[in-house]
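A quick aside before the break. I want you to see a complete sequence-to-structure record at least once, exactly as it would be stored in a machine-readable document. Don't worry about memorizing anything.
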Amino acid sequence: MGRRTPLIAATAAATLLLIGGCHHEEPDRPRNSTAAPLARVPTASPGFPPTAAGAKGRLAGLKVEWGKNWQTYRREEFGRYWSDETDAVGGRNGCDTRDDVLRRDLTELREGDRNPCVVVSGVLDDPYTGTRLPYSYRRASQIQTDHVVALGAAWRGGAYAWTPRRRLEYANDLDVLLAVDKQTNQDKGSRTADKWKPPRRAFWCEYGRRYTGIKAKYGLSVTPPEKAALEELLATCPSRP
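That is the input. The structure line, written in tokens, reads:
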């Protein structure tokens, strides 16, 4: 038995390497490895999301107009894959954007020993429904990454005029992204705030703050019904003396 130990150890190591190369992610997604991974989990840009009062002020300053160029939208305009090669929050840290979202949003987090970018397991308290969703690296997941202001909605609000680089930055900005329940995200699609709100009413305030903060950060316009819906969402925020 003692003579077999090195062979068994080598086989086990090879197996672990093979498993580490398999990740249940969106299909056709390349891994990024241009920089050493950071141990620190990226969070958000300073002051994001804005307070309720700050969001109301920013909402008042947004351009109000009907969406444009909806017929020219294509998902590929924002890049075909997640990218670490942007100056957005979480960019250039050696970790895939979706991995950064999981590292930030999951609790009971267990990261990979060899690559701390990889989330081995964790639990998501879904902000949209309040459901607790387990996550495991080796199993199909009920968790998806949502652009709070959907890419199609951003396109109609002004992203159609951006450079490809700016659109890639938007698509990978952690301020724009949340880990959420897969089915709820699919139900939302590219709907704006006047056409879709989180089923969990307790999240309406934060959703309104995040949504408005994203619109203001990127200079996106809102439609008249969208602005009214955001005012409704922000009205649910607790009043403070």
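Two observations worth writing down. The beta strands are 107-111, 119-125, 132-136, 143-147, 177-181. The first helix runs from residue 5 to 20. We'll return to this after the break.
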